[in-house]
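Fill-in record for tRNA pseudouridine(55) synthase.
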Amino acid sequence: REGALMGLNRREVHRLLTEGYFAVNKPKNWTSVQALEEIKKVLRKDIPTHFQPPVLKLGHGGTLDHTATGVLAVGVGWGCKLLPIFLHGDKKYIAAGRFGIATNTYNETGKITEEMKYDHITEEMFENTLQKYTGKIYQTPPKYSALKYQGRRIGDWTREGMDIEMKPRPVTCYSLKSRKFSLPHFEIEVACGGGFYVRSLVHDIGQALSSCAHVTTLHRTKHGPFMEEDMLEHSQWN
């Protein structure tokens, strides 16, 4: 492993470990924090001890749901300070959803809270409804989320039985289009600003069509300046 670093001096390696920022493909069923811990473990293992800084600080530019995959921006050391500058903004997602079933998490991991008919929904109705959710809109975040209340994630409070009122807030959806439609399943592509919840979007679309819906898969294809082609697969974390 030291052979891979023979062309670098200690100062150059130190800079890589204290000023870096890059994107990875977050694996399914990993939390964003678990991904950071794995990257830190790999860096500690790959870099000789005498090259390593005393503190190896890592951060990410925005939480992805643990069942979601795709672009996760990572900062190392001073690079963490760049994350809110470069990555607070635009994101793109591909989401698959299912009509007729609502869950308490708004995705496939939650408990079923409602079942409704969906056979009245046509593709034209679906596409017309999507247009209502573009531009500046108000959106209510899910109760199972990483948003903070009194210093803790609201999702943690919810799991402990605390019912926190979620209020609508302004968000921006730059574009929203249908990729697939085959009842009860559908797939959409979303380009949005910061603070936008695709799970809430799918939940709202279901209600707008006199039914209900939840997200079955979610994949982020863009996060700030990082695109899919920029992200490192798990096998490339070294």
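KEY FINDING: The chain has six helices and 13 strands.
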